[in-house]
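Shipment paperwork, digital attachment
Item: protein structure file
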Amino acid sequence: MAEAAKADMFVWEGTDKTGKRVKGEMSGQSDSLVKAMLRRQGVKPLKVKKKPKPLFGGDGGGKVTPKDITVFSRQLATMMSSGVPLVQAFEIVGRGHDNPAMQDLILGIKAHVEAGNSLVEALHKYPLQFNDLYCNLVQAGEQAGILEGILHKLATYMEKTEALKSKIKSALFYPAAVIAVSFIVVTILMIFVIPQFAELFSSFGADLPALTQFLVDSSDFFVANWYIIFGVIGGTIYGLLEAKKRSKKVQMFIDVYSLKMPIIGEVLEKSAIARFARTLETMFAAGTPLVEAMNSVAGACGNVVFYDATMKMRDEIATGTQLQSSMRDTGLFPNMVVQMVAIGEESGAIDAMLGKVADWFEQEVDDAVEALTSLLEPAIMAFLGVVIGGIVVGMYLPIFKMGAVV
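Attachment content:
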């Protein structure tokens, strides 16, 4: 297996037993070994050359989206259920894919499987596309002989998870986009519009209203220091993002206080519980041992608070504590969730109960996002009216005052 991992990819052309011209890709130590493997398969090699390393190789790079992986899992499961051999299924799915990055990924997996690796070993070579949860479930499916069923479950799990992420992003994108646009508009007014009015007002020879003077002074400061302001804002955002990636304390601080935010915190909390339940349900259904499953569940929650709580639960379960008790001890899960898990443990249908919990909280997130959107729209309109309207009124106050005097 160690040598197979070092194999290079070769592009070949040849003729089959009927004389028909065929071509494809194969993994091997050298072109001579690839030719030998082709002859054993009944192909007369005409041209074999090493394939240039693609941008989307085994390092997991490339623009492969979760949706691509979901569709790939569903297609592969469907073909296997129809009796299509695994390698041939890779060939069909890979050649028919519109995304070149995904096509390279699938054909790369096919080459590793042809070289003697198991499917899970091939998937491990692409860690950014196939996480531990995916690989663990595929391994369980291979060992139990139910790979196509596991792939269907994975596809369903990913569809639901991505739908949940999409709802959260849509809820946060709208206010973020409006705030960004309003900042751009205010910047344009401060740099280009207000200075024009300031030149006009300077010819009046009278004191400006307080609001107008404040806006003129703010504009002067903005024009003189715009590069510092943009630098501080950009640096702060970049610094927070990098600190969140590199520092566990910063990540914990952001995740803890994001859960305490009004309205949005409730959405994030319900989302984390839904992902916890959906991931654990999927792994239970695949027959993954509970302690082993908790590692993948922790990473799928998307929040450090729930990650730490899940890892603590894993340690307690390893010492013999029931899942319901360890969930109750964290203080993160509502009593309804704990009770449903308790019923599932007693009846031996914990995966079904977790599925119901996930369905419930996914619907709760959906409803909360709709409520949040309806609440934010008037609040954002009021915010824009105060900011933009205040600037407009401040600029026209001296003109109104002069008109009243006349």
